[in-house]
Amino acid sequence: MTYDEILSLISPTPEERYRIEKSRELLLEAIEERFQGNKNYSHTTVIGSAATGNFLRGYRDIDALILLNYYNAESFRRTIKNIGGLEQIDFRGRKMTVEDKVDARYNHFDVSIGAVLLSGSPESSLGLDMEQHPTFTITKLGESKRSDILLSKQFFKNIGLYGEKLGGFTIEQMVLFYGSFDKLIRAIKNGDRIYIDFSGKYRGERTPIVISYPFCGLDNLAKKVDERDLFISREYASKVLSDPEQFLEDTRRVMNKDFWLKRAVKYKDSEEFGFPDIHLNHRENRIMRKKVNPYSHKKVLDVGCANGYSTIAISRPGDNFIWGIDASIEAIEMANRLKKEKGFKDLTFQVGQMTEIPFDSEYFDIVYAKRSLSNLPSIREQKKAIKEISRVTKMGGHVYIFDLVMEGYQRLNRLRNIFGLDEIELPFHCIPIKEDFIKTAVDNGLRFEREEDLTSTYYFMSRVLYPSLLKPFRKQARSNSLPNQLFSMLPSFRNIGVSKLYTLLKK
Fold first, then answer.
1. Phi, psi (degrees; rounded to nearest 5) at 42
2. What does the DSSP 8-state code read for residue 463?
3. 260 domain residue, yes or no
4. Does residue 275 share a domain with residue 235?
5. What phi and psi values does residue 7 have, to the nearest 5 degrees?
6. pLDDT digit string, tens, across residues 100-153
7. Is pLDDT above 80 for 316?
8. For site-directed labelling of 416, which of 65, 78, 219, 372 has its Cα 20 to 30 A away?
9. H or E segment to which residue 500 belongs
């Protein structure tokens, strides 16, 4: 069951598959258009996961090889520069397998293109061997092994090896050799020597892991892996086999980190980094400000502060002494820049985990977590965070949890169905809490005081009524629209909000 949960997280959506396939086709057409008049041009082949379809959610790479009968550097580079839609072109020069390598951007994808000479055969040429890798994988593994491949890739990604020291084709050969993901990690756990040479020709160095090019056997695709990597792999394989839940948690953690890194690149220092729906964010901040600000000269902690926009908006430095922690180094760097711009001195931002809050017990008068608890990778991690929040809160102090609730999504989607709208999917990178989860926090020294649904009207107007009015015109509702700003000012009625505020008291 746990593997199924992991696969539901890491498998690409139909939309992602479509984007990859469409961009791949368009890139091939653009290359063909420019190279077709070149008498030395043979054809172009897409390789890697974009060719086999064995890519993880969020995959943004397309690798291709341009096959030439004769290579002329000046002609090749001039033609590449004229390919329509290719941007940020960077020629990297000759590599072991290609005459020249080009890194670029195409249709929001990172693209790598290599020039390969059409001389010899896959049995004698690294470049031509590489061209056959997608065919090798598709022929020998097929659709039935896709789940094993994705799980194996995520396994190595969780320990920092996939993409850094192990490529996708290398992992695909492992799955083929051992037969399944389970058998692969059991072999790793047992300390089996990994030596995979389908060509039978490899004569190179016996590094900790050997996985050769399958036709020519001229090189080791895993030569960057060292003994320490092997040790880490064995330790992690042992953990995964004894506690699959750990594999799920680590996968969510890695995906969450990737998600916030991409948000940092996209939004940088803007308010939208923490939450793109700025009008809903403003409403939640106004609500939290009324909870926190009546208490002056108190120590306040924002757990999961992102880039600090909401921390400053809620706590109003000068009234209280404020700290903000976040697991993202990039987010804290942004928060400290914002603090400097605003000139606040009684405000401190630092890197810190919700499950290991870096402060002494009973240090804070008020602790709040806004849309951060749901970013933890599992319910047991959420429980750890509640326990830590309780630990650092003084006796008589208040804790506020303002977060997404699972039942809120369910109620909202029932309404959207009534209005003929598609369901809103749960965010893949987080786990909304259940309504009764916070109420059980009394076990951690906290007494539940109240639950408030203060976003119902906004969610109904912005996620149901407004989109249904726009639907006949085939328009999409924008989160930063003027109507949404007006909706955020309305009082809240009923119980259909996706986010709820929970107030707790430290006993």
1. -105, -65
2. I
3. no
4. no
5. -65, -35
6. 999 999 999 999 999 999 988 999 999 999 999 999 999 999 889 999 999 999
7. no
8. 372
9. strand 499-506
Q: Are residues 347 and 310 in the same domain?
A: yes
Neighbours of 144 (CB within 10 A): 7
Look at strands 86-93 and 347-351 and give their pairing.
unpaired
Is 46 in a helix, a strand, or coil?
strand
Q: From the centroid of its chain, how far is CA 314?
A: 28
CATH code for the domain of 487 = 3.40.50.150
Distance of alpha carbon 18 from alpha carbon 24, whole angstroms: 10
- What size, in residues, is the chain? 507
The answer as to whether 341 is a domain residue is yes
**CATH number, domain with residue 198:** 1.10.1410.30
What is the C-alpha separation between 243 and 241, in angstroms, rounded? 6
Could you write out the three-class secondary structure of 159-181?
A: CCCECCCECHHHHHHHHHHHCCH
> Could you tell me if 111 and 138 lie in one domain?
no
Backbone angles phi, psi at 104, to 5 degrees: -160, 180
Residue 197 corresponds to which amino acid? D
Rounded to a whole number of angstroms, the distance between the first and last alpha carbons of the chain is: 39
Sheet strands (E) in 283-392: 299-303, 321-326, 347-351, 364-370
DSSP character string of 99-121 = SEEEEEEETTEEEEEEEEE--S-
- Pairing relation of β-strands 41-47 and 61-68? antiparallel
What's this model's pTM, rounded to 2 decimal places?
0.89
> Rounded to 5 degrees, what are φ and ψ at 359?
-140, 160
Whether residues 115 and 127 fall in one domain: no
H helices, E strands: number in the chain: 20, 14
Can you give the residue range of the structural domain that contains 211? 123-242
pLDDT at 428 (0 to 100): 82
Categorize the per-residue pLDDT at 99 as very low, low, confident or very high, splitting at 50, 70 and 90: very high
